């Protein structure tokens, strides 16, 4: 073997011209990928391996900006790690994102405990919140996204990149298995 031959873990290295025939993640492609999300302490927060890969219409802000930037240009089979700072992820925590809400807006107000995540029904739909304090008729909740202010560690594997249909581009989301069905 020539001294400078590149080798990956499999011992096989695809010539560059093969790779260039693959479809790369870019705007208006449908990209499927597995991800493991963990925090600074390497505690796992989410893992797509328990279900199907996430499938998104690329370039339309359907995932956090830091992850979309990192995936751009990759093709099926690529595996890589991405570190996303809060400003490219779920934003910084806001201390004024605390609200006092009447108990009637909760699904199951009698079982709430401080620190517990729960779902609040709002005019704009369901919203995930963390319970801070429970009074006799009101509950203080934290409206920050649970991952706000956190650095996100992703391990990514791209499983597929395909052309989006004109209909998917018009709707700005994926159709079919793993997407909208209408
Ligand atoms: Zn649609």
Characterize the structure shown.
With 182 residues, the protein is mainly beta. The chain has 2 domains: 24-90 and 148-171, Roll (Chitinase A, domain 3), CATH 3.10.50.40; 98-142, Thrombin, subunit H, CATH 2.40.10. The protein is 9% helix and 34% strand. The chain contains 3 helices and 9 strands; from the N terminus they run αβββαββββββα. The protein has helices spanning 16-19, 65-71, 166-171, and strands spanning 29-38, 44-47, 54-57, 79-84, 98-102, 117-122, 125-134, 138-142, 152-163. The strands form 2 sheets. Strands 1, 2, 3, 4 and 9 form a 5-stranded antiparallel beta sheet that branches. Strands 5-8-7-6 form a 4-stranded antiparallel beta sheet, with no helix packed on it. The longest helix has 7 residues, at 65-71. The radius of gyration is 21 Å and the shape is elongated. The chain starts with 15 loop residues before the first helix and ends in an 11-residue tail after the last helix. Zinc ion binds next to loops. Residues 171, 173, 175, 180, 182 line the site of zinc ion.
* Strand element count: 9
- What's the overall geometry? elongated
Measured between the Cα atoms of the first and last residue, the distance is 55 Å
The main sheet comes to:
5 strands, antiparallel
Give the averaged pLDDT, no decimals. 87
Low confidence ranges: 1-8
Name some characteristics of this structure.
182 residues, mainly beta, Chitinase A, domain 3, Thrombin, subunit H, 2 domains, 5-stranded antiparallel sheet, 4-stranded antiparallel sheet, 34% strand, binds zinc ion
